[in-house]
Amino acid sequence: MIFYNTNSYNRNAKVKNSSLDALSQMTWLVSNERLHKCACPIVSTLVGGLKKAQEPHHVSRCLSQVLDAALKLDPTMLEPVVETTLSAIIRQV
Predict the structure, then answer these.
(1) Nearest to 42, CA basis, from 81, 83, 88
(2) What value does the CA radius of gyration of the chain take, rounded to a whole number of Å?
(3) pLDDT in tens, 58-69
């Protein structure tokens, strides 16, 4: 997550997109304990990035990987961020 936050301020779109791609691929490597602890903050950060993104494809793909992994672990853990996540996704459609 720190990796994405650090690179989200970079003006180079390729760096941002590469960090999002890396984060989405690393999601499945995160331990269950760590994912349970960090899922809501990660989703909130990605939703914020989704709202700001001019090209939301990479953010959406990363968000889908994090949501998928979190939901398979414990569907109830994302309840605090469901409303903001759904409203951000619906705005993109």
Answers:
(1) 81
(2) 12
(3) 889 999 999 999
Q: Model's pTM, two decimal places?
A: 0.81
CA dihedral 45, 13, 64, 81 (to 10 degrees): 20
- Token couple for 85: 């996540």
- 17-39 burial, b at 16+ Cβ within 10 Å, e below that, comes to bebbeebbeebeebeeeebeeeb
Contacts of 21 (CB under 8 A, 6+ apart): 58, 61, 62
Give the tokens for residue 77.
């853990």
Burial class (CB in 10 A: 0-12, 13-18, 19+), 70: buried
Local structure of residue 81 (DSSP, 8 states): G
Note whether 62 and 23 are within 8 A (CB): yes
